[in-house]
Design a protein that fits this description.
Elements lengths: L16 H27 L3 H18 L2 H17 L3 H17 L3 H17 L3 H18 L2 H17 L3 H18 L2 H17 L3 H18 L2 H17 L3 H18 L2 H17 L3 H18 L2 H17 L3 H18 L2 H17 L3 H18 L2 H17 L3 H18 L2 H17 L3 H22 L4 H24 L3 H20 L15 H4 L2 H18 L8 H29 L9 H4 L1 H9 L3 E8 L4 E9 L3 E9 L3 H16 L4 H15 L4 H6 L4 E4 L25 E3 L1
Parallel strand pairs: 1-4, 4-5
Antiparallel strand pairs: 1-2, 2-3
Helix pairs in contact: 1-2, 1-3, 2-3, 3-4, 3-5, 4-5, 5-6, 5-7, 6-7, 7-8, 7-9, 8-9, 9-10, 9-11, 10-11, 11-12, 11-13, 12-13, 13-14, 13-15, 14-15, 15-16, 15-17, 16-17, 17-18, 17-19, 18-19, 19-20, 19-21, 20-21, 20-26, 21-22, 22-23, 23-24, 24-29, 26-27, 30-31
Length: 739
Amino acid sequence: MALILPFLPTSSHILSATAQAQTTQDRKTEADKLLEQGRQQYQRSQYQAAIQSWQQALAIYQQLKDRKGEANSLNNLGSAYNDLGQYPKAIEFYQQSLAIVREIGDRNGVASSLGNLGNAYNDLGQYPKAIEFYQQSLVIFQEIGDRKGEAAFLNNLGSAYRSLGQYPKAIEFHQQSLAIVREIGDRNGVANSLGNLGIAYRSLGQYPKAIEFYQQSLAIFREIGDRNGEAISLGNLGNAYDSLGQYPKAIDFHQQSLAIVREIGDRNGVASSLGNLGNAYDSLGQYPKSIDFHQQSLAIFREIGDRNGVANSLSNLGIAYRIQGEYPKAIDFYQQSLAIVREIGDRNGEAASLNNLGGAYSSLGQYPKAIEFFQQSLAIFREIGDRNGEAISLGNLGNAYSSLGQYPKAIEFYQQSLAIEREIGDIEGQGLTLSNIGSTLQKQQQPELAIVFYKQSVNVREGIRQDLRKLPREQQESYTQTVADDYRSLADLLLSQGRVLEAQQVLELLKIQELRDSTKDTRAGGETQGSPLNPSESRVVPPYNSVINVGLKLTECERKTPYCPERDQLRSLRDTANQKFNQEVDRLLAIARQQRGKDPAQLAQEELTVAAQKVVTAQPKTVLIYPLVLDDKLWLVWGTQAGKQGVVFNSKLVAVSRKELATTVVKFRQLLEQPGDEKELQQVSQKLYQWLIAPLRAELDANNIQNLVFSLDRSTRYIPMAALFDGKKYGSPRLAMQN
């Protein structure tokens, strides 16, 4: 009988070297495929699926003792968790990856891991720490001669400094990055650097320059076929036009961006585009549509697990409900957002949420509670070094104290905000803060000084408007309407002080495009120079600037523990600056009292009335009329010809509120479009006539005026002036009226 030996399994170590190598290679190929599969899933915002693929790849690389593959997998896992807003977990993976690449001497890998750690800390709002990692990464890329990596992290440094509100420094880094990628022919890098420069210039309020960079970036992404980059550039253009008040154009760009990210399957991009569309419709006042987009965005962020995106969507929903006056609902969304950003450790997001909560409680008139939130927000922005955020929080504190009637304290906060805005070059912010100071001084019954600040605010806005002359007319006009209230406030104050000529100049700035259309002269009014300060007003500005600059340094000094050594010197400088400022204010008030009612700004008349003069002198017996519609009153300012070339301006106050006027205009339009009760039409029409023409009737008749040219404001734009009823007839056979 034959002996049958039992079958023994062959141990792996008995396999031939060739077979073992083949198995190892097969496993490595499998891991490499999983790594690539995860990359594709990540690009489609399928973060959980990507994590699963990379964890499988990691296990294989670890089994094979493939340290480089292991480091790559850990790095990728860090990126996925970073995009999910799980920053501590992301940092843990990046640190594990960093340890391995340092161990195996992979300098490029070390630089990449350091850079990714910088990205995580940047997303956490820990910008100084992010900058530290970016700089370490940059040094290595420069040492090993990796020009592409060097450019990438110069860009990242620029973004971090932009988050800190250090815009000039940010631009410097983005420009260095741009120079390198152009030199090495990296078209994708060029497009990214141009886009980042656009974001920096948009933050500075330099919208035409921002748009120019975005358009260059978009052209390159389209040329090289980078659909994701194309979508980002379109979204950036949408945000720029949103800032300009060009909401339909903004929506168009956001919709183009949305179409692309849907096509390429980028779920994160879809959610972001939907959120941008929601913001644009919010600005248009289409709140149900806005809320719908934000809810769609929120659902996607929740689906893909992006905690930061969820927090942003909740915050956007809060803004939409706050604007509608649904404050409890807004507060609920803000609190949900705050809970998430605190949970994930996003300090910048926490500060923003606290600011939003402060705004909601301020709208409810709960100013002490609002102040508490603004102060918490301010503390965080200062802690993380975000200068722009600090300026915003200070401005909000100023608004709250102004609403409480604590005007000196409000102005103190505005001054700190203004000093920072000037330091970082935030032009738009300066315009707003100067206006807020003017408004607060007006509440303090200091009209002469309020005028100085309103003029500076208008002049800042005029600088932006001059820059916007590069853009189409409708975009210029949209921006003008976003800042028009400051012009109206200044004109109102000037008229109240009997300074009609200066008020007319401000109204001309507001209406310059209409006047150019009337005269068929695209340069009528010339290159507008704003609202010039007269000599006594000009003398106030330098000492005031000294007050705010020294005040900011003193505030920063006194925040330190112990106080900085220069504290006593700074306090002395502040007292001297205040003394000089008060002396110039006293001089201004004395001159104003002497000249009250004499229209003291006797600048050369041709500088003030160039466009108006063309209208009035174009036809004999013409009057140019500016209605100025304010919340509680209506001013009529009109100019008539004096001599061959001169124009004389007068004003009259009419007791009608903005709301009553608007309601009457709507009623008038309805009666015109749906004829019915003739008597009711005449009554409504005559009411408008009594407000807009009757106050001038005596002068019109005395001077045999034949032509009325209106440069209309707010609701008056919708009145066909020739259809007004004077009590006997519509219009007038003797008066030709032109809107």
